[in-house]
Amino acid sequence: MRQIAIVLSLVLALPALAQEGPKISSAIIALDRNQDLEAAKGFIAEAGEIIATKPQSEIKSKDLAKFYYYKGVINYRIHSGGKSLAELEPNALNKALQAFENLLAYEKKIDKERYSDEAREQMKQVVNDLARQAIGYSQNGDFQKAFNGFMKVYQLKKQPYIDMLDTTMMYNAAVMAQNAKMYDTALALNQNLLEMGYHGTTYSATNVETGEKTVFPTPDMMNRMVKSGKFENPEASGDVQPQLYEAASSLALMKEDTALYNQLVEEGRKKYPKNANLLRAELQILFNKKQYDKALNNLDQAIAQNPESVVMRYNKGVILQTEMGRKDEALQAYQKALELDSGYTDALYMSSIIYIDSANAVGDRMNDLPLDATTKYEKLKKKQKTIFEEALPYLEKAYEANPDDGQVVTALRQVYRALKMYEKAKGLPK
Question: 340-368 b/e with 16+ CB inside 10 Å = b?
């Protein structure tokens, strides 16, 4: 009898092994019957603690699959509950994602799908919420988190449970990377988008029953829905590819990668000859290469696209005047700019310089005359005075428009003195 008592006492002393199954069941009851998310979260957490202490081989496959699935469901419902449940689990959306991913991986490993179909449907909602979360980060100016979010959604949508190449997410990530000053990353993403032929076009059609416009992720999906008769009036709108070229070329220039910058601008110009920003970028390249004839052709295209562009007409005048010595044509270009904006200081000043240079050239000829060439000297002197008088209105108007422009003040003082208008010269700021 003594021996039996000892054995019994040993059996009673052994602790009961904790079981995950009842905890998982309690979590499901709290979730489905009582709608008590706090209790459900507590039970599923306890089940997780028990599972963490055991080798996976000791856990029933149906229990482990059920655990992963309901952990995902519980966390997703906490996330969907709004601010009232946010304190219950601030990271609920990511925990839901992780749980569903664990389920899909586990059921694939054991080659038995109990919850995979439901999890795939839940995953689509999770991924859409992650995209909305990333948009929220971007609106709040947290560009690093927004970048991470958009890239995460892009990668997740490529997974088999969604199987979609959502290049819009990559485009959003590229914008966020640039805003976050992650310039190398932004450049790489923009180049990827260009290589993928991304246009950012929106595909939409009208729901026949409701009359509402619906946006589709791909043109194929839009066409299928129109073919089904449920939708009508399909349309495609928008094209951000020119902006991709602009962004990528700008980023290449920041990296001082001139070859890539030139390549991107050239490609962009061929595809989008009417894009004003790419046209201006090409103009700068041509100017740097001193290919002035091509630069003038470029400017004429820009002016044709935008006849009201004061700056392009002014730039044309500068090239003609300073780089090609075609001063009469430069004056015509400046005059066109001034017809559009009579107070455009730069055009006024550069016009005056043409006259001042001409007057100074006459002065050089006067200085080269022999002392006895009095008649010729007086004639040239009169001519020089006339030229200075032609320069004067441009400078006075420029000074009136911008009295703080030092170059204008210096040139105006020179002309006043040349015309012996000394009091006016003294009145100018020093």
Answer: ebeebbbbbbbbbbbbbebbeebbeebee
Q: What is the total count of domains within the chain?
A: 2
141: left (phi over 0), alpha (psi -120 to 50) or beta: left
Reading the block at residue 271, the tokens are 């595809």
Per DSSP, which regions of 164-249 are E strands? Answer: 202-207, 213-216, 231-237
| Cα separation, 134 vs 145, whole angstroms | 7
Q: What is the pLDDT of residues 164-173, one digit of tens each?
A: 888 999 999 9
The helix/strand count (H/E) of the chain reads as 21, 3
Q: Using an 8 Å Cβ cutoff, are 240 and 200 in contact?
A: yes
CA-based nearest residue to 95, from 61, 60, 126 = 126
Segment 366-395, tens digit of pLDDT: 999 998 899 999 999 999 999 999 999 999
Sheet holding 202-207, edge to edge: 213-216, 202-207, 231-237
Helix-strand-coil percent breakdown of the chain, rounded to 5?
75, 5, 25
In a domain, 351, yes or no: yes
CA 345 from centroid of its chain's CA atoms: 34
Residue 31 belongs to a domain: no
- Residue where a domain stops, chosen among 212, 237, 262: 237
| Domain carrying residue 216 | 202-237
- 371 inside domain: yes
φ and ψ at residue 91, rounded to 5 degrees: -105, 30
Asked, for residue 422, whether it belongs to a domain, the answer is yes
